[in-house]
């Protein structure tokens, strides 16, 4: 329990920021791909969908993830 209290906040925030950054990149990639097919979906919606996909990738076992 003492280790959690003594943990430095900067690496934790950096890790969370990097995880979110990968989701943002995934949303941007989907946006560019769909734009090539002239499908217009807002970037914010695609980032949300990418984040949902990341959640299921992490927590569902097997080929569904």
Structural descriptors:
single chain; elongated; mainly alpha; 75% helix
Whole-number mean pLDDT? 89
Tell me, briefly, the overall form.
Answer: elongated
Helix content: over 70%
Count of distinct strands: 0
- Strand % is under 5%
- Give the helices and strands as they follow along the chain: HHH
List the quaternary state of the chains. single chain
N-to-C span: 32 Å
What is the overall number of helices?
Answer: 3
Cα-based radius of gyration, to the nearest Å: 16 Å
The biggest sheet amounts to:
none
Structural class: mainly alpha
| Unreliable stretches covering 5 or more consecutive residues | none
Could you explain how this protein is built, in words?
This protein has 65 residues and is mainly α. The chain has 3 helices and no strands. Helix 2 (9-36) packs across helix 3. The longest helix is centred in the middle third of the chain and has 28 residues, at 9-36. It is elongated and about 55 Å long. The model has no long low-confidence stretch (mean pLDDT 89).
Brief summary of the model shown:
With 65 residues, this protein is mostly helical. Helices cover 75% and strands 0% of the residues. It has helices at residues 2-5, 9-36, 43-59.
How are the secondary structure elements laid out?
Elements: H1 2-5, H2 9-36, H3 43-59
Helix pairs in contact: 2-3
